[in-house]
Amino acid sequence: MSARTKYLLDESDMPTRWYNIAADLPEPPPPPLHPGTGEPVGPDDLAPLFPQALIAQEVSSERYLEIPGAVLDVYRLWRPSPLFRARRLEKALDTPARIYYKYEGVSPVGSHKPNTAVPQAYYNAAEGVTRLTTETGAGQWGSALAFAAATYGLSCEVWQVRASYDQKPYRKLMMETYGATVHPSPSELTAAGRAILADHPDSTGSLGIAISEAVEMAAADPQARYALGSVLNHVLTHQTVIGEEALRQFELAEDSPDVLIGCTGGGSNFGGLAFPFLREKLAGRSTAVIKAVEPAACPTLTRGRYAYDFGDTAGLTPLLKMHTLGHRFIPDPIHAGGLRYHGMAPLLSHIYELGLIEAQAIGQRDCFAAGVQFARSEGIIPAPEPTHALAACIDEALRCKESGESKAILTALCGHAHLDLPAYGAYLSGSMVDNELAEDQLSRSLAELPTP
Amino acid sequence: MSARTKYLLDESDMPTRWYNIAADLPEPPPPPLHPGTGEPVGPDDLAPLFPQALIAQEVSSERYLEIPGAVLDVYRLWRPSPLFRARRLEKALDTPARIYYKYEGVSPVGSHKPNTAVPQAYYNAAEGVTRLTTETGAGQWGSALAFAAATYGLSCEVWQVRASYDQKPYRKLMMETYGATVHPSPSELTAAGRAILADHPDSTGSLGIAISEAVEMAAADPQARYALGSVLNHVLTHQTVIGEEALRQFELAEDSPDVLIGCTGGGSNFGGLAFPFLREKLAGRSTAVIKAVEPAACPTLTRGRYAYDFGDTAGLTPLLKMHTLGHRFIPDPIHAGGLRYHGMAPLLSHIYELGLIEAQAIGQRDCFAAGVQFARSEGIIPAPEPTHALAACIDEALRCKESGESKAILTALCGHAHLDLPAYGAYLSGSMVDNELAEDQLSRSLAELPTP
């Protein structure tokens, strides 16, 4: 087994532009609407929450956006990230498939999230903002923003979903080590949090609730802005450094993916890897099948409605046209906390509607089985989120074994599980269950979708 | 800040030989002795514990040992590791010093330990061993051996120091994810463990005790062998891939270290980085000052005696000539669990006696202060062990600031702290204390040193 295990790029080969897929789509995604007027929101509506530079990126129709030098300097702490050929997993599966994984766990916080946290913190600092607020589910995003805020000297306040705050004390400690302040959500600090607690004193929270709290706090402080770790266009655009690097690494490998598989929660990791490949596909330079995998307990693409909905539970955000389970839907507290969001990125939802990608939902025990197999062959213990993609990836490789096809499969390994090991403990002990989708709750929450 | 942040090597530039510094020392280190006869131990004495290949490496006088291809194949999962220039830390310190760190946290378990765990598992598997036993303190070593054992299909049983077993549940979960079995030590499974528990039912354990247990279990099973994560010659030799890579990376940087600083527990991380540079120094090609930093609560080099002593608490191992606090000395349960061992590698102790390296002891609060400063500038949260080296490194950089000297400082960042975050929590909350060295216990344990 002397053939190459990983494909590295030099710092000097790091992408210097983000790719904005909106410029290449056959039709533009529907705009966000103001919930009061039903009209498309303008920059002024968003100014209390985001710096001007990010608002401009959010609505940009430019194909490429320059990455500022000060952002590249921080990216260099871990980028370019490696592309691995999973030779040991291939051997364990006895498959003729060639399995590749693009690994983002090399970042300081162990996930892909700093790819957007760093530019978000940078643009805020550049416009004189001194305080960032955000929410976090699994804790990956909060950790990333805490790191990025420390890098540019901003203060950072994180509302962490209560279930995660209680179950993942290490995440809170990581954010605090970077200097951030962490609150469990729902909290008594905001009107949105107090309203939830009044009805549900024992609420374990949700991303939607935590977003409401962080948005409310940012809107109330002129020195503060809000930062979101997924869902929005600019976030997905920042993540395209992943896919741009992977394209160059496939050139080094003298190969190209037949199938690309990523996990989807809000869509940022998936979009980050997939969009540059989708550009190649739209231009006729690739025929890769591109597939999103989501948790069976929170299946926004496969079971959600494509409709205008709020991004948060309290209804403080603009209305976004997206695949949604309804903004009041609270998914079961599955271990892949990063995939536990009621909506899906509008850009990705639109692309799914255009028929450019496929989607699949998988239960969490199958995902963890894939995670354990991967760990024991490739060494890296995958975060619970990307085990969804790995499960589909292993299925595909086993189909290749049956058919004899030697497909090249690319998957997004967006992080490691060092801070998620209790989830593996639950799986190994046999106590993990496959949460059923709460059908009753889904019907109710879909019936409560807002009408723009 | 457009200058280079990290120096990467291609897989094809990975070292293919380990460096055995014993071949280059002006006099050989004193041999291990049989505790019964007082005679040097021979291969037959060690055969119940180690495979022949490792015994041969332990006593080898060859300068270079070939790394087997099957080991290189696994090394490729994370090696070569990056050498970073800490430009953001330099800026934060406003120092003219050039600070470099060789980062081993990119391995699947987040530390340098797999560099020796992998070859140890490989040689055992090659000789038909089916079961490995070992001990672990902080959990880094146990995790590494669990990963390596999974790689070669061996079963793996780990005795984890009770204090760590209780405080670091994530470590246990990581080992179990790789398929290992973990016991708290002292345990009722061994005579050594039962003897300790009879006298001290609430014993929080020590590395010395856990070694006794793992050695006892291996010796009793012809299919089993024992694996040690530090201290022994072959372990330090395996780790020299770190320093060999760093030498090549300094060539890329067109620089060379004036000062090299590493932390020392058993000595494997330090030796791994330092020995190749020491070779250059002995050959007159380098003038680098080489410094070992140890915890003030467990100061084997600076306060221990250079004498023959047992490697374990129960006295089951051969006698090793080393810097020791006495094999019955039980250090305070400091957060840098990997540095909490009563002895120091005989090879490193010998090198220290030859005056080839310096040593310094630092209290844990100063170390964590350095760790937090590093995290907030460089992003990576350092494991508690290498914060000792970072504290000395920052001191050196600040001296450069005063003197105006622009020294190149190289430090060994042997792992990240993702599984050690409660230690940072203790530091940030102000509850961390600087454990005093237990002087009374030290006097007693030194008085009990065996006489060969």
From TrEMBL, chains A, B:
Pathway: Amino-acid biosynthesis; L-tryptophan biosynthesis; L-tryptophan from chorismate: step 5/5. Belongs to the TrpB family. One of its GO terms (cellular component) is cytoplasm. It comes from Tamaricihabitans halophyticus. Its cofactor is pyridoxal 5'-phosphate. The modification N6-(pyridoxal phosphate)lysine is found at K113. InterPro entries: Trp_synth_b-like, Trp_synth_b_CS, Trp_synth_beta/beta-like, TrpB-like_PALP, TrpB-like_PALP_sf. It catalyses: (1S,2R)-1-C-(indol-3-yl)glycerol 3-phosphate + L-serine = D-glyceraldehyde 3-phosphate + L-tryptophan + H2O. This is Tryptophan synthase beta chain. Residues 77-415 form the Tryptophan synthase beta chain-like PALP domain. It is an enzyme of class 4 (lyase). The beta subunit is responsible for the synthesis of L-tryptophan from indole and L-serine. GO terms for molecular function: L-serine hydro-lyase (adding indole, L-tryptophan-forming) activity; pyridoxal phosphate binding; tryptophan synthase activity. It holds the Pfam family PALP. Tetramer of two alpha and two beta chains. The gene is trpB. Its EC number is 4.2.1.20. Gene3D superfamilies: 3.40.50.1100. Keywords: Amino-acid biosynthesis, Aromatic amino acid biosynthesis, Lyase, Pyridoxal phosphate, Tryptophan biosynthesis. PANTHER family: TRYPTOPHAN SYNTHASE, TRYPTOPHAN SYNTHASE-RELATED.
